[in-house]
Amino acid sequence: MWGTAQVENGLCKTRWSYADSSGLYDHRFRFVFLKFEANHNRMKNLALHWKIIIGLVLGVIFAFISSALGWSEFTINWIDPFGTIFINLLKLIAVPLVLFSIIKGISGLHDTAKLGRLASKTLLFYLVTTVIAVSVGLLLVNSIKPGKLVDDAQRLDNRLAYEIWAQDNEINVKDGQHYLKDERYVDRVAVVQELMASEVPDASLEAKMQSAKKTKDAGPLQFIVDMVPSNIFLSLNNNGLMLQVIFFAIFFGVTLISIPRDIAAPVINFVDGMNEVFLKMVDFVMQAAPFFVFALLAGVISKMAGDDPNAVIEIFKGLGWYSLTVVLGLAFMIFIFYPMLAQLLVKGMNYKRFFRAISPAQFLAFSTSSSAATLPVTMDCVQDNLGVSKETTSFVLPIGATVNMDGTSMYQAIAVVFLAQFHLVDLDMTQQLTIVLTATLASIGSAAVPSAGLIMLIIVLESVGLNPAWVAIIFPVDRILDMCRTTVNVTGDCTVATVVANSEGQLNKDVWSKLD
What we know:
The protein has helices at about 30-45, 50-70, 70-80, 80-105, 110-145, 150-170, 185-200, 205-215, 220-225, 230-235, 240-260, 260-285, 290-305, 310-320, 320-345, 350-370, 370-385, 390-405, 405-420, 430-445, 450-465, 470-505, and strands at about 1-10, 10-20, 25-30. By secondary structure, it is mainly alpha-helical. The chain has a three-stranded antiparallel sheet, with helices on one face. The chain has 22 helices and three strands.
């Protein structure tokens, strides 16, 4: 008996032959190989967003299993680093891609008036969606009142601690009530003062408060000053200075179309070539995205859970109503508001097309918690799947990744009111309108990196006279909620890019056929 292998039409076949008294018979045993080949082809043809979903789910499952078996240290040391490598690769591509994409987009306009119109539409849509997101957040938190669902005794202690803090810092109590002067709470005041005195300062919290103080103390035009780089090479070295890169790219692109075309041609060709190179880098990185996403999620949850998988569940139990309120608001933006906006303003767009087009960017945003890291993939999805022109994609999305933070703004509004409710502080309508304004402006300056919203939240808390140290209360669930709100930010960017492109006649609807 012997066997031989051969390949026919891409399928591996094995022929087994044996001889007996009746002669030589051939039997082909291909079942295992055909089944393997069919499964392999099925996986190859699976859409990228499904592969990423599988990576997400397997990452979560693996994290809980490794935690239950006491392998969290192994996961953190040997699997999580690949997630960090993935984010680093995306950040590596993001800044040069933004630079060359914007220059390429502007160099193809031939009309500075069109650029001004594009910019005004982009900023107007981003501003409107941010205000709506904050308003929805305030409506939800005032309806559900998650802070009032906490134990009353705990809320009373929190209120006393707030008044002691306000007294020490010479700040007027917001609602005009004074629990410290109430004789019924004399004993509790002593206990709360003792607890406050024994608290050890959190180094990470102190660093965030210092950063927030620096931002708050800056002048009213500091935002514009920070946009203009003094050294573009230093700006290219720092993903947090994306606005400076965008400013330089716009300035460079406008200058490029202002000089004779024959002189500008070599530079334009160079920019076009570099842009294609970085887009190809995105393709290469995304081939391995499902595996990297698995590593990211496994690492994030392992760090939260340690060797006790119930720790994550307990964290969410303690802040359950707050987390639910935030998630409901973010879900409304993703599944109702943005698709509805796209369908109303872009003829022919429907729910299925919208989500099939941008789902890879959404899942990647959820995994990385960074709009900047997700930007290369967002641009790829919007251009290739939604049919937005290169010039619109190159201009609208980099700006969106920096200034459009709808999810972050909503979270800040909900978090501030929740923390006030948690401390028995009733904020009036004026103070809540202050939150809308501050959260909207703060979102513009919020870096497109994980947990940058916490720094902006400190500023929003201070704007209504509340203790900025309260952000420590919501630290435990911030990472997971950050993943959710980044998904909202990226979805908002995609929606605005599509709407703006449609209004400018820069939307190729023929590509939608592959989404049906």
